[in-house]
Specification:
The chain is an alpha+beta fold and 190 residues long. The chain folds into 2 domains: 76 residues, Orthogonal Bundle (Arc Repressor Mutant, subunit A); 90 residues, ADP-ribosylation fold, CATH 3.20.170.30. A hairpin with a 2-residue loop joins strand 8 and strand 9. The chain is elongated, with a radius of gyration of 18 Å.
């Protein structure tokens, strides 16, 4: 696996950012490429991840404490549980239990294009290149996320509490993020 190799930014925030990108790549998309298998919740032992990542060029001195520090510094993206770590969201590999099952707020939000919003109202909400749909608790946050890929996003409102009452599962992936496998069209407004 090609990893972000060594460069002149080997300390401080730049190193932490590079480690975060590498850990996210492995935990979300390619655990098998470094010999890891995630459990049903997407967790792997911190020590095993450190050993696997230390085989990558530029990360030979990586230790478990570095990964713990990463997770503590970015609890929105990573979760620690006992001696295990996982990425909270963004998986393209299957994760059976992606977070804490939760009763969602009344509404959740998704930023998308106007054309996709019209399609969602007809077909419902399904993940695209990920395994789960990521929904924000705040419309502004949904719009900001969508602006990474779109110049003029619209925000779709998901009647999440009603969807949950109808049997749609939601998982909390952070203070302002919920995950779901999909939402039927009748619970989508824009």
């Amino acid at each position: 696996m090609a990893s972000p190799g060594p460069d002149r930014h080997n300390s401080g925030p730049q190193k932490l950012a590079r480690l975060s990108r590498l850990a996210a790549l492995v935990l979300r998309h390619r655990p098998d490429e470094v010999g890891l298998t995630l459990d049903g919740g997407g967790f792997v032992r911190v020590e095993a991840l450190a050993e696997a990542l230390s085989t990558q060029r530029g990360w030979e001195s990586l230790c478990a404490d570095d990964l713990v520090a990463l997770a503590v510094a970015d609890p929105r993206r990573y979760e620690l549980s006992d001696d295990r770590i996982r990425a909270r969201y963004g998986h393209t590999v299957t994760v059976e239990q992606p977070g804490e099952a939760a009763l969602p707020p009344e509404w959740l939000y998704l930023g998308t294009s106007a054309a996709d919003a019209a399609t969602l109202r007809e077909t419902g909400l399904r993940p695209r290149d990920r395994k789960l749909v990521h929904l924000s608790t705040m419309p502004q946050a949904a719009s900001e996320v969508a602006r990474r890929h779109l110049s003029n996003p619209v925000v779709v409102v998901v009647l999440s509490r009603r969807a949950h009452a109808a049997g749609v599962e939601f998982w909390r992936a952070g203070a302002a993020l919920f995950l779901t496998r999909g939402v039927p069209a009748r619970f989508i407004l824009s």
